[in-house]
Amino acid sequence: MHTDVNALFEKLWDNYLSVTPSAVKVHELLGSTQKDDVINDHIALRTFNHEKIGLEKLAAHFLAVGYKECGEYHFEAKKLYAKHYEHSDPKQPKVFISELLVEQCSAELQAIVNDMVEKIDADAVNADNFLYSGTHWQVSSDTYKKLLAESEYAAWMSAWGYRANHFTVSINELAKFDNIESVNQALKDAGFALNTSGGEIKGSPEVLLEQSSTLADDSEVEFSDGKMAVPSCFYEFALRYPKPDGELYTGFVAASADKIFESTNAR
User: Of all helices (H) and strands (E), which one includes residue 226?
Assistant: First the structure.
């Protein structure tokens, strides 16, 4: 496992960029001439609640570089469970890890997922590169479509595996923008399609967090029976509001996160 938090995020970022070319354009649009003024609020990762690769196995990589568990979330309709983690240095990004509750899904989906998980080498889960190692299996495009009919989340995992599902621009840290509406407008003016599930803006000042996101890029996947372009990763935008004590809210809002998951839905 990594011992340097910055090295870990650099690898996650490079891997994310490889399937999310629009992220570079987002940086150019929202940043100024300074290289590092687009600050990452959080990343998200996905997995299955299988003992070999469950949420806690992914979290161990972050705990090893100074993170601690801070909140848990339930998404009953999507059959997901999630936790978020924060670093002792508040300048480091927050981490949101979710897992699909496989036993609540159909027997067919369970069989496909178990087959995929079986192909992961037991040692791979603790390797430095596990969080950005992609897939350890290859499924057919038919299998992808079967999963998609039941769970977009499972289908996404079958195509993309282990990588950051999204990075998130902290609007609070932007020099050129101070509200989410102007960020969304700039994105739309530049030709980006936004996730409109639950409205373009999820959340509100009342829940101390407003979020929006682009729709995932379509990137080509080498399935066992040929190549097909499917939704890959996306970019999120978050504006946090101060709590009564004056500190910025650092958690997540389940109702909003539920809609953010839909950024990887097929258009």
Answer: strand 226-231
